[in-house]
């Protein structure tokens, strides 16, 4: 992924909709989401897989998607549906990327890439990308090799629901930590203190580090409590603060709060501008560090400030 302002693709909000529900797909196309993924996998019962594929192909050819990034999540490698899905989808010019669910083995990603090579054709403006959904224990263990496995890979997504199930976590809320996952200790006053812990702290960081190491975008999984505006905003802010590029959303009502969490505030942009200007002046004076607003700033701060300005510039396009 290039960090240049001109080429950075905003995917702050990635709205998921089942491809067999035409009215939902049409609504997603009209929405303010940065990206939409049409689902052929978990959101579609097996008896409707064929209809979902036809629905995705029709929607890609018939609907106005504006400047959205459009993705389709196919069924997992080894399923009886995936080869037909790729053959039908790969030539469609409006499709930007295929999401590969339950990505676990390099050989599987390479096989999918070969299927795309054979089916892609010449109608596309740009090569079809692959987004990998890391949602199992094995997938997380293999994430570095998966991220480096194919030049088509554009992003890593963390599949929070399936990942929790994969490790046996007792969580009833998609994207949330189990109630019992907490540290109990004794304070100096001999009182018991309970500290809630975050189930996803490690997998989020692991996916993010792999994405950054190989120049990919990192997309967090959804907040399942889509009716809870506080949780939707808080979990999006956590992912944005950590450095993720965006987050999946499962309902249009989550788009605004999630987008806002990933959009630099005017205060963030103003501070980042001061950092860049101060470092530019410091360089002319032969210095590698300078004070800004009472804080010592060096080249590490400069790189963080440049990313904030890049996000702000991409948002204004």
From TrEMBL:
Gene3D superfamilies: Phosphoenolpyruvate-binding domains (3.20.20.60). Residues 12-252 form the HpcH/HpaI aldolase/citrate lyase domain. Mg(2+) binds at residues 135, 162. GO terms for biological process: oxaloacetate metabolic process. InterPro entries: Aldolase/citrate-lyase_domain, Citrate_lyase_beta/mcl1/mcl2, Pyrv/PenolPyrv_kinase-like_dom, Pyrv_kinase-like_dom_sf. Pfam families: HpcH_HpaI. Its cofactor is Mg(2+). It comes from the Bacteria. GO terms for molecular function: lyase activity; magnesium ion binding. Substrate binds at residues 73, 135. Keywords: Lyase, Magnesium, Metal-binding. PANTHER family: HPCH_HPAI ALDOLASE_CITRATE LYASE DOMAIN-CONTAINING PROTEIN, LYASE BETA SUBUNIT, PUTATIVE (AFU_ORTHOLOGUE AFUA_4G13030)-RELATED. This is Beta-methylmalyl-CoA/L-malyl-CoA lyase. It comes from Paraburkholderia susongensis.
